[in-house]
Amino acid sequence: MKKGLHIGAMGIIIIAYCAWIISRICQMPINADAACMILEAEDILAGNLFLKDWSLTGITFLTTDLPYYIIGTAIAGVSLNAYRIAVSLMFLVMLGCAVLLCLYGSKRKWFSFAIFAGMGLFPTFYALSNTFVHTAVFSFFFLTVLLVLRTEENPSRRNFTVLGILVALAVCGDGLALVLITLPLLALCLFRVVKKPVLLAVCTIGGTVAGLLLQKLYLLFGADMNSLLHSEFIAPAQLVDNVLLYIEYVLRLLNAYFFEKEVFSLKTAFYAVKILLFLLTCGVMYRSIRNACKKEATDLPSLFTGIGFGLMTLILWLTTFSVNITTGRYIAFLPLLMGILLAKWAEGFPLFQKPLPIAAAVLLSFCLAATNALPKDREPVPENVLSRMATFLEEEGLTSGYAAFWDSTSITVYSEGHVNVRAVMYSGQALRPREWFCKKSWYDEEANFVLIKNEDSVKEEDTYRYNGIFNSGIDSGYRYEVTRENVEKFLGSPTKTKEFENYTILIYDTIQLEKSWL
After folding, report:
1. Which of 121, 141, 395, 425 has its CA 20 to 30 A from that of 371?
2. pLDDT band at 394 (very low <50, low <70, confident <90, very high)
3. Nearest of 158, 125, 137 to residue 93 by alpha carbon
């Protein structure tokens, strides 16, 4: 009877928590990347299994994020609800994998979970809004660490086979797996901190090669991997900017962004605690890497995750990968990682073997969780004009047109497919399709309008803080080029114009794009 009550209470708590997460995700506006994933999923569900005629982004998401979007679209069709279902599932699965890793091998599971909850259980809106993509590979990241621990306890052929399959699936779907999974696994082998380094290396290399081959095989039957992104190493002068932007990612993810806030307040004290805990987490990872280099005993979870997180940090510091505040999605797993490593560190720390320090740590963890969960301490939710734009266009009978990428496919999803807005770019001489997350046949549709974001709004967006999140040059080079001047240079004067909030709609009898790239 008592056991049944415990299970029932736990079930109610889990359901309430999932409802809280979903309610937060329901407040998130969709962006063009996620909208394209929904349209991609719709096409697969319609029978185009190999995404023939699609131009992708350099990443397939075939075995990582895309299955979640397929589930969401299968349930809700092309709609905002499909996005909500997909992101909710991705986040909850990632959280589940993180909790499993946190509790694995713990002798005081209640204490480990209590410590984890302080950092990882209640994500900030910034963290949650960056889980729309790459989230599934973070789940693989946590599962890989868990499987490494399992193979250390039981180095059976079955466990190594499962590990190899996991690597293959992660690498096939998302190139981040090479940084977060393949390289850390190989580092474990080189450091010889595992029982069977040769076998682990064979599984890692075999899984990585199999994943890349599976990706190439899939692409042979349909989509191409054209990508407009070309990452390079930055000039030395840009290093400071990248590091400062990285610091902002971290502070936003932890709800510890103290700039422009009161110096002396209770909130500021919690900001300071979270920053200190981040530094402690970095210290735990650093110590494990140092011990491995010295051939001393080391902690596998902190070593593995430290290498993966460290490599990702270096990429964000030293390359053009880091563009603006939205690039924080590449380390959106940080709060969960901190929760895991702090829980494992606290369980083994001598101080936390006594009742009073344990109670103090649990109380602090509860307070940290509350700073993210309580309504008065949450960040405001951004408003999205594009949802209203979708309604306006449909009411005006404007159902097929073009816009800059970030203003395009989101409208299509908001309108549930009743209004199709495709992404274009201005090449200097002509208006043409944007070769990024698109289906080429979209541009055979008859279109009669171009959506332009007013120049003053674009300039504002490059310098202002939108609900506390700094947007520095989003999509510069594409949004800015789709201007009224450039559109009229190629298409001539519109037959009619309409204004809606901070947008202008240029209406033509028909529009012919330059499509030589197709």
Report:
1. 141
2. very high
3. 137
**Which residue bears the tokens 């529009």?**
511
CA count, 13 A, side-chain hemisphere, 411: 27
Give pLDDT, residue 224. Answer: 80
Pairwise CA distance, residues 458 & 462, whole Å: 7
Tokens of 329: 């999605």
CA-nearest of 428, 418, 443 to 511 is 443
pLDDT at 372: 83
Smallest Cα–Cα separation from 140: which of 103, 158, 165, 109?
165
Q: Which of 257, 245, 230 is nearest to 317 (CA)?
A: 245
| 315 vs 22: CA distance, rounded Å | 32
* SS3 state of residue 79: coil
Region for residue 58 given its phi and psi (left: phi exceeds 0; alpha: psi -120 to 50; beta: otherwise)? left
| Helix extents (H) in 349-384 | 355-373
Euclidean distance between CA atoms 487 and 170, whole angstroms: 41
Beta-carbon contacts of 88 under 8 Å, excluding residues fewer than 6 positions away, are 18, 21, 22, 25
d(C-alpha 223, C-alpha 93), whole Å: 28
Tell how strand 496-500 and strand 400-403 pair up.
Answer: unpaired
CA distance 402 to 160: 50
In the predicted model, is pLDDT for residue 59 greater than 60? yes
Q: Give the integer Cα–Cα distance in Å for 124 and 379.
A: 8
Helix (H) or strand (E) holding 499: strand 496-500
Q: What is the largest CA-CA distance in the chain?
A: 78
In the predicted model, is pLDDT for residue 111 greater than 60?
A: yes
**Which residues have C-beta within 8 Å of that of residue 108, sequence separation ≥ 6?**
347
Segment 248-270 shows an average pLDDT of: 88
Q: Round to whole Å and give the CA distance between 420 and 398.
A: 9
Mean pLDDT of the residues in the chain: 89
One-letter amino acid at 247 equals: I
DSSP state letters, 3-40: HHHHHHHHHHHHHHHHHHHHHHHTTSPP-HHHHHHHHH
The answer to whether 314 and 225 are in contact (CB under 8 A) is no
295-322 pLDDT, tens per residue? Answer: 998 999 999 999 999 999 999 999 988 8
SS3 450: strand
Which H, E and C letters describe 301-346, residue by residue? Answer: HHHHHHHHHHHHHHHHHHECCCCCHHHHHHHCCHHHHHHHHHHHHH
Mean predicted confidence (pLDDT) in 241-251:
94
Q: How far apart are the first and last CA of the chain?
A: 67
